[in-house]
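Why show two proteins at once? Because comparison is the fastest way to build intuition. When a single record is shown, students tend to memorize it. When two are placed side by side, the eye starts asking what differs. So, the first record is below.
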Amino acid sequence: MPPLRFPLQTERLLLRPFTDGDLEAVFAIQSGEDVTRYLYWGPRSLDEVRHQLKRLKAMTAIDGESDALRLAAVARESGELIGDVSLHSVNRDHLQAELGFILHPDHQGQGFGTEAAAEMVRIGFEDLGFHRIYGSCDARNTASARLMERLGMRREAHFRENEFVKGVWCDELIYAILATEWAEAH
């Protein structure tokens, strides 16, 4: 497969690799308790975000050398970085990837997360040739669960108290979609 050409464009978003200039925007997202409430990690300091940004900048392809594609989601109209979306190759033999997404609260509820995630699923199936893409979320995170359902993903599992996160036993939901299901819907 030829390398992806950035930025990728959707109706309202540009998806592109992270740059050093994204530090303040990523900090604004990752330092918020409302953003990290259902994630494995809590609000990050500026130094922690600086370290994380270094890792994010390297996640630009899923190929023979890299297992992760994580892109900044930028609102086309304003040029503002509003979140990120990712695919991680979790099993090359079985052609499976995990979808991830984080959105700044000011931009939630407007369809941006669904738009960005749909483009990543499309890339995963049409460009990267995955067979199955799945996502997981804390069962209390109803917004993430609804987003995955809007993508046509079906709930495959509800694991009861299977993760101990931030001192609390949490339920986890697993959603997935197959390449054939995606193709039939698109």
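Second record. Ask yourself what differs from the first in the token line.
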Amino acid sequence: MTRRWNWPLWLGLVLCPIAFLTYFFVFIRYPITRDVPWVNYILFAFALILLGVGVRRAQRKAVAVIVGVIGLAVVVFFAFFNLVAVRQLPKAGGAPHVGDKAPPFAMLDTEKRQVTLQQLLTEPVAGHAPKGVLLVFYRGYW
């Protein structure tokens, strides 16, 4: 009986660290994949399917089970990190909350002119008196 190469098992094992590392080096840059790493979950699902198929068709079950457990450990660590550990990060104590009055500030507008919060609240825009200012805070970095 000739032994055949168990490609699903080894491809699943290779795909696990790829799915893990692409979150930190690629997908963390984009809010749509940073906040909920759905692409990584899909990659991990493919990896687990391949590992399962590889374990089922393995002739040497002990090696296949060890490889499968290693792949599964990578998936569990990633899930723990994204679903549990991130929630344990401390809250920003000085961060404003919804409804809080904004402190006075000055910043550049889209035309590189400095504007202040007071200007935005008092100067008319397009002939209409301002009713308020909407501040949007983005999580992340540039």
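One difference worth noting in the second protein: The first strand starts at residue 106 and ends at 108.
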